[in-house]
Structure formats: structure tokens, C-alpha cells
Design a protein that fits this description.
Layout lengths: L5 H8 L4 H6 L6 H7 L2 H10 L14 H10 L17 E5 L5 E4 L15 E4 L5 E8 L7 H7 L2 E9 L6 E10 L5 E5 L4 E3 L8 E7 L8 E10 L10 E10 L1
Antiparallel strand pairs: 1-4, 2-3, 3-11, 4-10, 5-9, 5-11, 6-7, 6-8, 6-10
Helix pairs in contact: 4-5
Keywords: Ubl conjugation pathway
Protein name: F-box only protein 6
InterPro entries: F-box-assoc_dom (IPR007397), F-box-like_dom_sf (IPR036047), F-box_dom (IPR001810), F-box_only (IPR039752), Galactose-bd-like_sf (IPR008979)
Length: about 250
């Protein structure tokens, strides 16, 4: 196999999973290490997996990292749409009549723009907040990648009110160091929705970029309450939350 032309070897090795290329093939010999490190091999893998478009050619400085980020990209929030009850969520505040799960559109509510979303979490007259802590290393994002490349971290969340009751929505997302020191934070002013609103679902989003080195965790918290203190579940509704890390 060492007698094969370089372009043939690139084509063959590009068929292998990235993990095998980096952990095994690259260690075989000097020639294989050279081929595994070639830009053409990783660009070919991007083409095979549908990550490559002609318009990207001049904007990608490192096709290996670009491929890895595309391969890893997914929603890091677990159970974002209440399909597994409250699994994976920590209920930080659970006041009033407590958090509850309802099916869309819910009483005096509206359907989500995404028809795949079937459920949502709803708050009560007391403050209700829930959170998740994402450990980046456990999700495949190694320390050097986060420190040197600092890929964009995109936060999205959807919220809505009932037609007949006012409510408040809040969100906090923090990028944390290994020692849980806050390196950067997204904490906008709470959104207050008045009674007799249109009950439409709205998306809030934020992108972290050029953040400090040392990010090891992402802490996501959201929730709120109704503003009229009615017994039951008249507070803010939330669903379809996401954290994605992109190239």
C-alpha cells in the first residue's frame, strides 16, 4: 500500500472515520502521517459528508477542524421539548404550583412554527427556573479546540404566553472555566408579556464569539412566572431550547 500514488492513498484514507485516522492511521508511518495531515484529505471528507460547498473554499483555514466541528454539531441541550418529562433538567426554582408539561397548542395558546415540537414546559405564579450544565469535553469538544479555534456558540430558545394572562420570561447562559468562573454571560432583561397578547411563539438567540480561552462548561437557565399570580399554570411557556457549536 505504501507504493500507491498519493492521490489514491488520500482517496482510500478519506473513507475511514476521523477517529481512526487521528488515533491509528496517523501513527503507522511518516508517509501516513503526512497524508492524514493533508488539507486535500479533510476537504475530501467534507465533500463525502456533504459539508463542502464551493463558496467555502477561500474562507476555511483548517479543513480538519472544519470537518470535526461539522461532524460534532448538534443540539447539546438534552430533552429540549419535554418529551422525557424533566429528565436532564435541574429545577432551580419550582414555586407556586410548580413546573408542568403540557401539549401544544395548550389552553389559549398557539402551535409552534416547527410541527415536530409537540410539548412545552410551563411555569406557575411563583418563580420557576430550570437549568442544564453542559460539559464540553464529554460532548467531544476538547480543550485545545475551544481555546485555539474558539468556535461560535449559538444559543436559541422559544417562549410564549397564554392569551389571557401576562407573564415574564428570563434566560441566562454562562460560559464557565474549569473552576466554574464565569468567562462570559448572556443575560438580557426579562421579557414581560402583557395580558391579552397574541400568544405567539417567539425565538430568542445569541451567539458567543471571540470569547476568552478556558471555556469548559456552558450553563443554560431559563423560566419565569405569570404576572397576575393566578393559581395553576398561567406563566411563561418554553420549549425547543438549543446550544450548538459551529465552525
Amino acid at each position: 500500500i505504501s507504493d500507491l500514488p498519493e492521490d489514491v492513498l488520500v482517496e482510500l484514507l478519506s473513507l475511514l472515520p476521523a477517529r481512526d485516522l487521528l488515533r491509528a492511521c496517523r501513527l503507522v508511518c511518516t508517509q501516513w502521517r503526512y497524508v492524514v495531515d493533508l488539507t486535500t484529505l479533510w476537504k475530501r471528507k467534507c465533500q463525502r459528508d456533504g459539508f463542502h460547498t464551493q463558496s467555502l473554499d477561500r474562507s476555511i483555514s483548517d479543513w480538519k477542524i472544519f470537518y470535526m466541528l461539522c461532524k460534532l454539531k448538534r443540539n447539546l441541550i438534552k430533552n429540549p421539548c419535554a418529551e422525557e418529562s424533566f429528565q436532564h433538567w435541574k429545577l432551580d426554582n419550582n414555586e407556586g404550583d410548580r413546573w408542568r408539561i403540557e401539549e401544544l397548542p395548550g389552553p389559549l395558546g398557539r402551535e409552534m412554527p416547527d410541527p415536530k415540537v409537540q410539548k412545552y414546559f410551563v411555569t406557575s405564579f411563583g418563580l420557576c427556573l430550570k437549568s442544564q450544565l453542559i460539559t464540553l469535553k464529554n460532548e467531544g469538544y476538547w480543550n485545545e479546540l475551544m481555546d485555539e479555534k474558539r468556535p461560535e456558540i449559538v444559543i436559541k430558545d422559544w417562549y410564549a404566553a397564554r392569551f389571557d394572562c401576562g407573564c415574564r420570561y428570563e434566560i441566562t447562559v454562562r460560559l464557565l472555566s474549569e473552576d466554574y468562573i464565569v468567562l462570559e454571560e448572556f443575560h438580557p432583561e426579562p421579557v414581560v408579556i402583557e395580558q391579552w397578547s397574541d400568544a405567539m411563539w417567539r425565538e430568542i438567540s445569541h451567539t458567543f464569539h471571540n470569547y476568552p480561552a478556558g471555556v469548559r462548561y456552558i450553563w443554560f437557565q431559563h423560566g419565569g412566572q405569570d404576572t397576575q399570580f393566578w393559581a395553576g399554570w398561567y406563566g411563561i411557556r418554553v420549549t425547543n431550547s438549543s446550544i450548538t457549536i459551529g465552525p
